[in-house]
């Protein structure tokens, strides 16, 4: 602005959202090019450059493709920044307040408001330099009043839809007004050991934690398979207070290549499917006992035994490969994808442990707390139960066919039973016993 020149355009308001900042370098210039008559209504130009900051350093980069819009009462217009981040609105003829919005996917929406005074016979140029801050991964800015969508990318592809006129309350129950930053990201499953808790399809975290929405938000999780999808699906959310997954009442349906449901509050959610887990049969297997024979015959004192060392079976196995079970049910496509999903479910059902090719043994100490009497031999044997656990999956084809796929596993029990057998020795083998006093005949 020229020295001693009165301020022609005045800053009305600068609004910041979240991490967004506005770095303003304004030039308010009065010009007569092109010529304008002294009695003619003033013309106003708004122009500038938009730069991006990635939060990791102070380097600024010109942002192309930023949507720049303004509202002046009921009048609005928009443009986009060029390759060097520049934009302009020229030839505006109305004095008053102009509310500008700068938006670009992956960056925090930024706002700027200014007000032009009523003048005649002049042209006013108002120049801005705006810095937009890159959003953290998975964060999207949404105005619940207007509605919007929140994409989820990464290990899972999904979309959360906020309907127009949605009301929001925070975790304390207070109303939340204006735009909100929503973070939606795939996360690792939280294994709780619940039989009904599965992974299978998607585990997603939505933040801010505890925010509640009315009406509920629509969630669509893309199906990773082309020709098939899982039936008997359900929605769960994780309750950090109890450390358990809670199954929700709202259904999960399949349409347009996605699993669809609704959520009314932010938490960690899981879309899973019933695994039909059941224990089919059990058998007891003999396992080795290390130093299982303690021979105390011929001894006068008892021997304490605190533990029995056993070679305990560990690791669970598939009785037949999953791919073979799919083929046996009549499924010949999407085999790799289905196998991966089924493996995740069975892994979650086994405390997050993967299956092994064959069971192995590990040395374990089993408390027995017994005493081997004098002149007695102890023999210890051990048994471990191995259970056949079946998982039954309902798989649908996009053409309408339904398949029941059964996958069997062999799972050794964590517990081991130890049997003790005491065998008394001959009394003549004990020093000082019958027939062992020694001595000869006179």
From TrEMBL:
Residues 421-442 are annotated as: Disordered. It holds the Pfam family CarboxypepD_reg. This is Carboxypeptidase regulatory-like domain-containing protein. InterPro entries: CarboxyPept-like_regulatory. SUPFAM superfamilies: Carboxypeptidase regulatory domain-like (SSF49464). Residues 1-25 form the signal peptide. The keyword Ligase does not apply. It comes from Alistipes ihumii AP11. Keywords: Signal. Residues 432-442 have a biased composition (Gly residues).
């Amino acid at each position: 602005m020229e020295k001693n020149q009165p301020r022609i355009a005045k800053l009305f308001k600068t609004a910041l959202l979240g991490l967004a900042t506005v770095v303003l370098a304004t030039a308010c210039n009065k010009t007569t090019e092109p010529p304008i008559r002294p009695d003619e209504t003033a013309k106003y130009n708004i122009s500038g450059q938009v730069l991006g900051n990635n939060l990791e350093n102070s380097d600024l980069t010109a942002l192309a493709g930023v949507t720049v819009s303004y509202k002046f009462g009921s009048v609005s217009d928009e443009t986009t920044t060029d390759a060097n981040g520049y934009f302009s609105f020229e030839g505006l003829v109305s004095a008053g307040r102009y509310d500008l919005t700068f938006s670009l996917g992956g960056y925090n929406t930024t706002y700027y408001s200014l007000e032009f005074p009523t003048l005649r016979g002049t042209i006013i140029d108002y120049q801005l330099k705006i810095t937009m801050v890159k959003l953290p991964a998975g964060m999207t800015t949404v105005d619940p009043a207007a509605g919007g969508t929140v994409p989820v990318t990464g290990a899972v592809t999904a979309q959360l839809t906020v309907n127009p006129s949605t009301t929001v309350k925070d975790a304390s129950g207070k109303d939340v007004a204006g735009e909100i930053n929503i973070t939606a990201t795939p996360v690792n499953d939280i294994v709780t050991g619940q039989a009904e808790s599965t992974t299978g399809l998607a585990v997603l975290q939505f933040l801010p934690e505890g925010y509640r929405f009315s009406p509920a938000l629509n969630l669509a999780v893309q199906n990773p398979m082309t020709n098939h999808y899982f039936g008997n699906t359900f929605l769960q959310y994780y309750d950090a207070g109890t450390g358990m997954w809670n199954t929700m009442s709202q259904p999960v349906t399949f349409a347009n290549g996605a699993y669809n449901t609704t959520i009314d509050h932010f938490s960690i959610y899981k879309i899973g499917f019933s695994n039909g887990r059941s224990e089919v049969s059990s058998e007891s297997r003999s396992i080795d006992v290390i130093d299982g024979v303690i021979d105390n015959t011929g001894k006068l004192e008892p021997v304490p035994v605190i533990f029995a060392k056993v070679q305990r079976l560990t690791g669970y196995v598939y009785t037949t490969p999953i791919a073979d079970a799919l083929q046996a049910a009549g499924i010949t496509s999407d085999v790799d994808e289905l196998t991966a999903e089924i493996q995740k479910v069975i892994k979650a059902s086994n405390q997050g442990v993967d299956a092994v090719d064959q069971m192995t043994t590990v040395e374990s100490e089993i408390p027995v707390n017994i005493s081997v009497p004098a002149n007695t031999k102890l023999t210890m044997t051990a048994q471990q139960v191995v259970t056949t656990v079946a998982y039954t999956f309902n798989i649908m084809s996009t053409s309408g066919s339904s398949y029941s796929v059964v996958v069997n596993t062999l799972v050794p029990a964590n517990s081991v039973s130890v049997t003790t057998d005491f065998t008394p020795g001959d009394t003549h083998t004990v020093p000082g016993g019958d027939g062992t006093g020694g001595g000869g005949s006179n």
